[in-house]
Amino acid sequence: MRARSAFTLAELLIALLILGVIATFTIPKVLQSQQDSQWNSSAKEVAGMFTQAQQILSSKGLLNANTRREDFTPYFNYVRVVTTGLVDGRQTQGSDDCSTMPLCLQLHNGGILYFINPNVSFSSTLSTGAISFNFDPDGQYSGSTNGPGKAVLFFLYYDGRVRTYGTIDPNTCPSNACYNPTPSEDPPWFSWN
User: Fold this and answer.
1) CB–CB of 134/113 below 8 Å?
2) How is the chain split into domains, by residue range?
3) For residue 152, what are the β-bridge partners?
4) Which of 78, 92, 157, 166 has the most CB atoms at less than 10 Å from its CB?
C-alpha cells in the first residue's frame, strides 16, 4: 500500500499563522488607501465647486478685488451650516472649532468646508490675488497634528485656478498675508494626480 501525502496539523497552523501576519500588515494599508482615495476625490470635487462659484460670480459682474470668501458661499453646494464641533486643521496644526468660526459648511460627502476670517478678499485682480478655504474630508477632529484626515488648504485665484498650500504660486496674496508654496502643509492623502 502507498502512503498518502497530506499536510500535518502543524504545517496547516504555520501556514495560517503566516497568512495572519501578512493580513495584519496588509489590510490596514488597503483600507487606508481606499479612505485616502475617497478623501482625495471629495477634495477635487470641492476644488471644482470653487471654480464653478468663481465663474458664476464673474458672469454676474460680482467678482472684483474686494470679493470676500463669504461672497462665494451662496454658490456652494452644501447640506447645512455647522455651528458646533471640532474639525481638523491643516497638516501640522491641531483643530479648528466650528462654534467660533464665521462659517463651517457640511458638504454632501460628509466633509466640512470652513474659513476662519470672513473679511479676507482677493486684494488684487492680478495673478497672485487669491482667497483660501479649508476642507476637512471627514468633518471631524482626528486628535493629531499630522496624518490621515487632516484638512487641505485650498487657494482660489482671481482667475479661477485652484491650488493647495503646497502647490500655490510664490507670493500668493490674499488681503490678509502673502504665502509661498509649502508642500509639508498638504495632507498625505491629497494629490492632484
Assistant:
1) yes
2) 9-185
3) 135
4) 157
Q: CB burial class (10 A; 0-12, 13-18, 19+) of residue 25?
A: exposed
Angle at 129 between CA 186 and CA 155, to 5 degrees: 20
Whether residue 9 is predicted with pLDDT greater than 90 in this model: the reply is: no
Q: How far is Cα 157 from Cα 154, in angstroms, rounded to an integer?
A: 10
Answer yes or no: are the C-beta atoms of 48 and 161 closer than 8 Å: no
Task: Give the three cell numbers for residue 145.
Answer: 497634528
Encode pLDDT of 82-97 as tens digits: 999 999 998 888 899 9
Give the Å distances, CA to CA, from 98 to 10, 84, 109, 140, 180: 57, 5, 18, 10, 27
Cα–Cα distance, 67 to 58 (Å, whole number): 10
Q: 61's torsion region: left (phi>0), alpha (psi -120 to 50) or beta?
A: left
Residue 177, phi then psi, degrees to nearest 5: -175, 170
Q: Residues of the chain with pLDDT > 90: what percent?
A: 59
Task: Supply the pLDDT for residue 3.
Answer: 66
Rounded mean pLDDT, 152-169: 95
